[in-house]
Amino acid sequence: MQTHAQRSCQPRQSVKPTAHRPHAGLRAPTRDGGGLWRLRYVDIDRPDLGATLTLLLDGSEPVGPNAGLNNPDNITIDGAGNLLIQEDPGQNVQEARIVAYRIADGALGVVAQFDPARFSRDAAIANTPEFLTMDEESSGIVPVGGPFGRNTFLFDAQVHTTKNLPPGTGPGTAEEYVENGQLMLLNVTDWLGVYGTPGPH
């Protein structure tokens, strides 16, 4: 890609990504969309008192220079109120990204994206030796901090192909590696650069 106790910075609420199938309102025919919801309890210690469900993102909002959310699949929240969303676009015409949502004001930005030279849907790139697949995703993101420092996250890259792996069975072959996956450490050094605007004070 380019570039443990988890807690929410806002107590008494939780957020969840959802993916859905295409419908007429989507901006691109090869995007599955998706949304981000907030569930806010009247009293987190008394869930029987009820809660309010609010749609924060409906998938149509532009994220960076590209389309809106594409199959949001996993999320995490750091202690500063940055919510990171991992996309799983599957066979859709868009490289998978990690998208940031700033809870304080709803700002959006792209933190990381799979390298187009290896995962582009462009037919010219698909015929090059560097191309791997158009079925890629990242998953399992968690903030780590500690010895890795602030603004660091651990996640895996799932590259659903055995291309360029040694054929055969046993150690050091495609059987052992299964796919071209990686365990990755992400350090976000410039949140202003991610969002493009400073957060509220």
Provide structural commentary.
- The chain is mainly beta and 201 residues long.
- It has one domain (13-191).
- It contains 4 helices and 10 strands, in the order βββββββααββαβα.
- The chain has helices at 116-119, 123-126, 174-177, 191-195, and strands spanning 13-18, 35-41, 51-57, 72-77, 82-87, 97-102, 108-113, 136-143, 152-159, 182-187.
- A 4-stranded antiparallel β-sheet has the order 4-5-6-7, with no helix packed on it. A 3-stranded antiparallel β-sheet has the order 1-2-3, with no helix packed on it.
- The chain is globular, with a radius of gyration of 18 Å.
Strand order of the largest sheet: 4-5-6-7
* Alpha-beta content class: mainly beta
Overall average residue pLDDT: 79
* Rg computed from alpha carbons, rounded to a whole number of angstroms: 18 Å
Low-confidence stretches: 2-16, 19-29
Can you tell me the number of structural domains? 1
Tell me the fraction of residues in β-strands, as a range.
25-35%
SSE pattern, N- to C-terminal: EEEEEEEHHEEHEH
Basic shape: globular
Tell me the number of strands.
Answer: 10
Task: State the end-to-end CA separation.
Answer: 32 Å
Helix run count: 4
What does the main sheet amount to? 4 strands, antiparallel
Q: Helical content, roughly?
A: under 10%
What key phrases describe this protein's structure?
mainly beta; four-stranded antiparallel beta sheet; three-stranded antiparallel beta sheet; globular; disordered N terminus
Layout of secondary structure:
Elements: E1 13-18, E2 35-41, E3 51-57, E4 72-77, E5 82-87, E6 97-102, E7 108-113, H1 116-119, H2 123-126, E8 136-143, E9 152-159, H3 174-177, E10 182-187, H4 191-195
Antiparallel strand pairs: 1-2, 2-3, 4-5, 5-6, 6-7, 8-9, 9-10
